[in-house]
Each structure stands twice: as C-alpha cells, then as structure tokens.
Write a structure and sequence with these properties.
alpha+beta; six-stranded mixed beta sheet; 19% strand
Length: 371
C-alpha cells in the first residue's frame, strides 16, 4: 500500500493551526466544530469571523466539510490524512505505559498464542478501540524440529514443530516395532538435517537416508505443504466493546457493520497481510481503492516480526475520528515489542540467515496513509 499523495496549495500557518484544532476538537467531542468553539476553547487572538473565513477556505480545499444541519465543520478523510502526514507531532507511548505493557508480557511463558492474545487485549484497552493481531508466518513454513514417540506395537507418533510456532502431530505405522532409543536417534539426525528448511528443500534432500527416514520426511514435507497452502489467517481480536461505546455506533445498523467487519476474515486475510510489505505504520482511511475500502472506519496498521522470514501484522480499527496521536505510537510500540519477543523465541540459529539489525518494527518508521 503506497502512501497517498495530497496535492494541495500550501496552507498558511493559521490554516494549519485551524485544521489541527478542528481535528483535535472533533476527535474529543464527536460534534461539528464551530468558529466560536475554536476561539473560546483555544484562546485564539482573532475574531470568530476570521476563523469562519479560514474554515470556509479549508472546506473549499476538501479538508473540512459540514453536516447540512450544522454550521460547524468536521474533517474529511483528506483532512485527516493531511493532519497525520504534516501536522501531527511525532510522539512515543509514555514511558509508564511502555513499562506497564512490557511487564504484562514478561509475566507470561514462552507461548506465542498467549503473546498474541495479550497484544490484542492490551492494544484495544490502550487506545479504546478494537484491535486485531495476526499470527506470524513466513512466505513458506520452515522446519524447526521433530520428535518420534513410540506409542504401542508398531505405531509411532510424529510431532512436528515449525519455526512459526505451529505444532502438528501425525501417526505412522512401521513394518516392525522400533525402540524409543532408535526413534530418538532418527529424530535427532533428521532434525539436524532439516533445520530451517522449507518443504521443497526437504523433498530434494540427497543425503544418505534409510527407507524409514524417507517415509518420515515425506510425511513432514506433505504436512508443511498443506500449511503453505492454507488460506486462513489466524487472528486474535479484542475491544469490540470499546468500538461500540462510541457515538458513531449508536444505531443497530452501525453496530452490525462493525461486528461483521471485525469478525470476518476480510480484515485479517485481505487487509492486514498487505502491510507486511511496508515499514513503519500505515493508516487507511475511509473509501480507498485496490481492496483497501474500509468505509466509515480508520485502520492503523503495522507489521512485526523478523525480516521477511517470520512476519505478522497488528492493527487498530475505529471510527475515522480516532485519536491518531495516541493510536499510532501505541501500534508502533506494540509492533516493536512483539518483534523483540519473536526474535527471542525464533532468533539466532532458529531463523536462517537473518540479522538482528533487521528486526521489524524498530525505530519510528514512517506513517503512510491511503485512501
């Protein structure tokens, strides 16, 4: 998703100030903003008439609009994009918030699904909107290790662990009983041989393999190919109650649309994966093109993970009138924290050919907006 370009005449300093204040006031109040409110609330040293003229000019430029029943103005999607790209100061999540979030993560064990569920819950509670986090995955799944466990008779349980944390179990039957010691030796040998490989690389191995080795690796490769072909994206969703508490969702139709959008696979499978090709934070607003039409909502998205090998995405869904000055730093920090956790779990020796300096989500990144 490329950054949207805003082609506008240069705004004067006062027009930039007025636009900034309208965005902030409308974000706070959810009601159209009048010139009188701006003058009274923010102590502007000019008359209401002067501010009305500036509001009218910003409306001519397509940055503001006004409901037909009100003299006040509200930002358009273009107005929000201009604010995000040019007027919004760079901020980090407050240190106390960062420490609180980091502490909650370090209370957990090394369970990826717990991290992702907690990420969605914390992000939703921090920004008071809905949050979605997708499980990390690579372009193709990679082998981590396997265990062969003798069960009974000729039956063996194969436990396959992949680098994205996925675990699969399969049964196989040997021609004759095999001791657990022999199975463990096969497990260790094949784990060392296949570490970090993709399915097609395992299928093309030419090392000296026994018939049993080949049978095990055929099963491993078939399982990995099934996962590569899987279209579904595992996603963790939290914060619907925050979304529905806002005035934009006062009627049942809006509630139904919000629930359908959040719970459907469209957001997790179609929109969030697109952000894995970008750095930093991406903001989608309103009615965009190329599959990025989010209607009356705003989406703040970021990828996390380790380079291109193991990448997920997280996002905040809210009304276009969300507090981007809070949401963007929260999304950026959560992406950075998840990247560090993923690196710790699948770091050196686990994700082949990656370097620490390339971790996703580090630094401020760039804010791109599309619409």
């Amino acid at each position: 998703m490329s950054s949207a370009q805003i082609h506008l005449p240069g705004l004067t300093s006062r027009q930039k100030l007025v636009l900034r204040l309208v965005v902030r006031e409308y974000t706070r109040s959810a009601t159209p903003v009048s010139s009188k409110v701006l003058v009274d609330q923010y102590g502007l040293k000019v008359s209401s008439a002067t501010i009305r003229n500036e509001l009218a000019r910003l409306e001519e430029l397509g940055l503001l609009t006004h409901p037909h029943t009100s003299a006040g103005r509200v930002p358009t999607d273009a107005g929000y994009r201009y604010f995000i790209e040019y007027l919004m100061p760079e901020r980090e999540l407050p240190l106390t918030e960062r420490r609180r979030i980091s502490h909650q993560f370090h209370q957990l064990g090394l369970e990826l699904d717990q991290w992702l569920q907690l990420s969605a819950a914390i992000l939703a509670d921090t920004v008071r909107n809905a949050a979605v986090v997708t499980a990390p995955r690579g372009p193709q799944v990679r082998f981590k290790h396997l265990e062969l466990i003798s069960t009974y008779g000729n039956s063996v349980l194969l436990v396959l662990v992949l680098q994205n944390g996925v675990v699969r179990q399969h049964g196989l039957v040997t021609r004759q009983p095999v001791s657990q010691e022999a199975l463990s030796q096969v497990s260790d040998r094949l784990s060392a041989l296949c570490r970090g490989l993709q399915a097609h690389e395992i299928e093309s191995l030419t090392d000296e393999l026994t018939a049993f080795d080949r049978e095990v690796l055929q099963l491993v490769a078939a399982c990995m190919r099934d996962l590569d072909r899987a279209a579904s994206v595992e996603a963790y969703r939290e914060g619907l109650r925050h979304l529905l508490s806002q005035p934009e969702f006062a009627d049942s139709t809006a509630v139904s649309r919000a629930m359908s959008l959040l719970e459907s696979d469209w957001l997790a499978a179609s929109i969030l994966p697109q952000v894995t090709a970008t750095n930093g934070v991406t903001v989608l607003l309103g009615h965009g093109g190329e599959g990025a039409n989010v209607g009356e909502y705003g989406l703040v998205l970021s990828r996390y993970g380790v380079q291109q090998e193991l990448v997920g995405a997280l996002g905040v869904l809210g009304p276009v009138r969300m507090n981007y000055e809070t949401v963007i730093p929260a999304v950026r920090y959560m992406a950075s924290l998840l990247s560090e956790l993923i690196w710790g779990l699948f770091g050196p020796g686990e994700v082949d050919g990656l370097d620490l300096e390339g971790k996703a989500g580090q630094g401020k990144g760039e804010v791109a907006s599309n619409g």
